[in-house]
Amino acid sequence: MPGMAERTLTISSLGKTFSVTGWKIGWAIGPADLVNAVNRAHQFITFAVASPLQAAAAAALSLPSKFFEDLQMTYQSKRDRMLEVLRQTGFRVLKPQGSYFIMADWRGVAPARVTDDVQFARWLTTEVGVACIPPSAFYQQSDKELGRYLARFAICKRDETLAAAAEKLRKLARL
Asked: Considering only Cβ atoms within 10 Å of each terminal Cβ, which end of the chain, N or C, has fewer?
């Protein structure tokens, strides 16, 4: 769109791009004034990044384009498989367009005694053996209700891990 380049800031991180959760190394690309504003805010949020992680980030960002193309295809395949499993199990899923997390409404799956996302995450972990993240933790206090009936599933796992989770989740459909 005309004029968007001057108003667009692209923000990403090593943790998201390379599936190394917890590696708090990121970047902002865009017009100098926007990047400078991010840098000013950032100095009050983060104070240090481990030197070995910085070296790993530099190496990772030098990988050939084929790596990123293969990574995208791999995640798309994992996403599509897990979307289908969740749908078959009774979840109403929100199809992610660029994430390795799937948000799913669990109300068609959980027992009546489960009334919010935190209870659902505990129930799913202890009774079914599959972990999910209660997304209300990501909402402001005034908006926590928006995540109440959702679960966040990570697909950035080994195929064997996803297959085991799928097998356990499919049992829910038979309950």
From this structure: N
**Partners of 150 in the beta sheet?**
105
Q: Rounded to the nearest 10 degrees, what angle do helices 159-173 and 65-89 cross at?
A: 20
Place of tokens 């390379």: 18
CB-based contact 115:109 (threshold 8 Å): no
Give yes or no: residues 43 and 25 share one domain.
yes
Which token pair is 60? 């990772």
Q: DSSP letter at 127?
A: I
- Model confidence pTM above 0.85: no
Domain that holds residue 39: 5-60
Whether 93 and 155 share a structural domain: yes
Which residue in 106, 98, 120, 155 sits closest to 166, CA to CA?
155
